[in-house]
Amino acid sequence: MDSLRLFGRIAVAGVVVLVLMLALMLVRSLVAERTQYRDQAVAKVAASRAGEQVLVGPLRVIPWTEQQRVQGADGERVRVVHGQQVQMPVQLQVDGQMLPEQRRVGMFQVPVYAWRGTLAARFAPMQPEGVPGRVYGKPYLVMGISDVRGVVGTPKLQIDGHSAQLQAGSLGLEALGGGVHVPLALDDSGQLPASALRLALDLDGTRSLALVPVADDNSVQLASSWPHPSFGGAFAPAQREVGDAGFRASWAVSSLASKAQEQLQQAIAQGHGVHAEQVQVSLVDPVDVYAQALRAAKYGVLFIVLTFVGFGIYDLVKGLNLHPLQYLLVGLALVMFFLLLLSLSEQLPFVLAYLVASGACIALQAWYLSGVLRSWPRALGFAAMLTALYAALYGLLVSEQNALLLGSLLLFAVLAAVMGLTRRLDWRQLGRSHE
């Protein structure tokens, strides 16, 4: 009977933990909802300004048409096929400065930039392929820009030292999306001669800038006063300098180490969007409060279980015979911490929000438990234990690479402490003492 009574109390505590886990799930769903609002703010800025930019090119293109005889169910017929002969640069050099600022949408700050860049490319001679029945059209130079609304003013293009007037559109290259182009001309021998060009481009964008390394030899240099870059894409910078004054990074990408040319040719041939390897840099928030709040909520179950283990052991040892509702109120105060952390971190720096939320919950617990335990020293001792748990949780949040190790060590330490405190207890005697 005593064992059944003790088991019943443990079962009730388990039900309380399940209720609190449901509350934590609601907090996590709220974090996901706020993250969606943040993403909507980014989309709103991108819709009114320009989105994330991807540059492809420059490329030289000769369009062609070809009549092909195909055999069908109703006999032989002639089909007209359209295509392009595309030439990649031999060498491409990109250099530019990303001038950042932040746009506010409600309570959200969205990083945007104005890129002041130059592209210098060199092309080898290009001879149209001698395919029987193929008729070539007028060649042109094209530069793919994912969101042409970001183009500021008129880009300045020089081809072999002579100014050229760019026109809107990427003509027949649907794979590039938007872009700009300029007509070219074949020489007397019927080929595109070797050429060097320089393009000065002012481009606005949101959050990230990416370039597809289309040349045989690609050199990219980007700099900005934004102190928190994220280098993505398929290639890490060969050199980088990141500090409070901003960053400077450079890439050197050879076609021997990149599949971008092959991927671009396939995208153009198949007429779908370009999903090629890129050099990318993003302007990110150093502390994503929603990612941090979500990680904290994921540790919430561990946090509650550890607190209840300590609270339950103290209850059994001291023979307090606390009511399940008191356990529930203590647990709800723990859950409230995560809700406070989420709401405060939207208005305050994350560290300060964490200190305020944890301090408020610790003070609330100490005040409540001083009455439940009928002793301020006991309540302050429990508050000290909570302070240690909040400190450990913060350590898990800021040490992302070592979170698993720290969490495992914390669990082991708590288990060892509980086993040490209870190894001489007579659980049956505890059950009879509570009758």
Notes on the protein architecture:
- Helices cover 42% and strands 31% of the residues.
- With 435 residues, the protein is of the alpha+beta class.
- The protein folds into 2 domains: 2-38 and 290-433, no CATH class; 53-62 and 82-285, Immunoglobulin-like (Sandwich).
- The strands form 2 sheets. Strands 1, 2, 5, 6, 9, 10, 12, 14 and 17 form a 9-stranded mixed sheet that branches.
- A hairpin with a 2-residue loop joins strand 3 and strand 4.
- The termini are close together.
- The model has no long low-confidence stretch (mean pLDDT 78).
- Keywords: Membrane, Transmembrane, Transmembrane helix.
What percent of residues adopt helix (DSSP H or I)? 40-55%
CATH topology of the largest domain, by name, is: Immunoglobulin-like
- What is the arithmetic mean of pLDDT? 78
Radius of gyration: 32 Å
How far apart lie the N and C ends? 10 Å
CATH architecture of the largest domain, please? Sandwich
Task: Please provide the ordered H/E string of secondary-structure elements.
Answer: HEEEEEEEEEEEEEEEEHEHHHHHHH
Main beta sheet: 9 strands, mixed
Q: Looking at the chains present, what oligomeric state does this protein adopt? A: single chain
Count up the helices. Answer: 9
Beta-strand percentage range: 25-35%
Q: What general outline do the C-alpha atoms trace?
A: elongated
* Level-1 CATH class name of the largest domain: Mainly Beta
User: Which class of secondary structure composition applies to the elements?
Assistant: alpha+beta
Q: Total strand count, please?
A: 17
Total domain modules = 2
Low-confidence stretches: none
